[in-house]
Amino acid sequence: MKVVSNSSPLVNLSRIGRLEILKSLYGQILIPVAVYQEVVVKGQGMPGALEISKADWIVTRTVNDQQQVRILRFDLDPGESESIVLAMEEKSDLLIMDERIGREMARYLGIVYTGTIGVLMEAKHKGIINRILPVIEELRDKAGFRISESLLHHVLDLADENPKK
Questions:
Q1: Which residues are CB-contacts of 62 (< 8 A; sequence separation ≥ 6)?
Q2: Which ranges of the chain would DSSP assign to H, the alpha helix?
Q3: What is the count of structural domains for the chain?
Q4: Which domain holds residue 16?
Q5: Which CATH number characterizes residue 25's domain?
Q6: What does pTM read for this prediction?
Q7: Which one, out of 12, 77, 136, 157, has a CA that is 20 to 30 A from the CA of 97?
Q8: Along the 165 residues of the chain, how does pLDDT read in single tens digits?
Q9: Which helix (DSSP H) or strand (DSSP E) does residue 73 occupy?
């Protein structure tokens, strides 16, 4: 399975020591140079930078279609733009991206995507994690991850973890 990731899922999972969930699910993650630059080079000393630089299963790729990247840059940041173009160039099976506008663009371009929450749902389904709620709480507390209460309740319903049932 070919999987491309933008920076925020990598950084958020690194901040809580759960980056390995991605390796367990997908084996290898492709990232564009812009994401590597954002997380590892510019983010040196920040959460996730060292973990991502040392993860041999996270592979950096150069995007070829720079014209498409420039077009996407009108609405998206460099990492999001290159992640979308890389997903198209690699004919990836999945793009992992949390940012709403980037996801809307991916949907428009016919790219299958998920976000950090979707990754956690798949991890629970495959038995990689036992419960989603503690991981989401950790993301909120340690990574500043934002999730609306309505989405949280929906996710907990889907994961069969909602205590109000």
A1: 32, 33
A2: 7-15, 20-26, 33-36, 49-54, 66-72, 78-89, 100-108, 116-125, 133-143, 149-158
A3: 1
A4: 1-165
A5: 3.40.50.1010
A6: 0.93
A7: 157
A8: 999 999 999 999 999 999 999 999 999 999 999 999 999 999 888 878 889 999 999 999 999 999 999 999 999 999 999 999 999 999 999 999 999 999 999 999 999 999 999 999 999 999 999 999 999 999 999 988 999 899 999 999 999 887 664
A9: none
